[in-house]
Design brief:
single chain; about 350 residues; alpha/beta; 4-stranded mixed β-sheet; 13 helices; about 30% helix
Length: about 350
Amino acid sequence: MIITNIANSKDIRISDGMIVEIGDNLKDKEIYDAKGMEIFPLAVDLNVKNSESISKLNTKALQGGVGTILMIPQHKPIYNKLQLAYNLTKEKDITLLVAIEAIHDNKLTDIHILIDKGASALFVNSDEDMNLIKRVFQYAQMLRVPIFVNANNTTLVGNGQMNSSKNAYLLGLEGIDNYVESIEVAKILEFSQYFDVRVIFQSITTKESLSLLQKRDRDKIFVDVCIDNLLYTDDEIGEFNTFFKTFPPLRSQEDRLALLEAVANNQIDFISSNHIATSDENKDVAFEVAQFGIPKLDKFAQLAYSLDIDRDIITRLISTNPAKLFALNEGEIKVGYKAKLMLMDDNGHIHHTFMG
């Protein structure tokens, strides 16, 4: 098959799910006319919470231009062979990677066994027992797998509901300070210097954290930001708008602009969705008891490409870089790569996806 008349690319020939030729005026019996549309590699989303079924995640990923997801076990534990197998064996069109809890109930999980059984990464909360975290790093170094870190201190969060700001004060809500994240970043960043391990700081939200991470070893320390924090601030909460109650919280405009500048200046490695499925019944309640999270997997690529940032940068951060992290043969439009592609019109609507 030939995809032709692409606005931002030469013709692309696909055979057996692979890109086999890119050139001008390619010929084939089967033609897909992409007139007026641009083509991009499908996104590789490194931060999808396991808050709903695989079938729902599959459907939403395809709607949102996502061909591969990394499932993060923050809603339902994934720490044994049964839970891992349950997720990996579910029928799906997308590629599913699974991060497993490296520490569960203040104990190490069977990390070596779970990696052998198909887990792709480890996940830790930064405020776990530091001796256990040390052992997780030792396992990751031995097994050559990345560690995804949630930089958060639950004790300092307390009953925090949103960003600590004038908005929180006016609404009478307990705030979550920037230092709740940055002190944990500083701790894990310093700790990581002693191990040859790839560490991904997930959903970084504050200018203080960015400052700490600016001089990191970029061969092994990576920074992920959530699309929420590039698009919105805590002003969106207005008069208790629970839709925008999420974690980590939406921050100030100063923080948002710092994140956008970091993206534009090549200081960020990944943009992810931080997708958390929520329901109306869990949002249409008082703010203090409303569920954290904004569902957005079904529009992730559309939101990312709506940013006022060069599209080549967006492609690198949502597709190319995350694919390279896991040595996936996707995320770029090159001969020899899987044809996991999407066609998008001028309005940011996805018209067709190719799954490779």
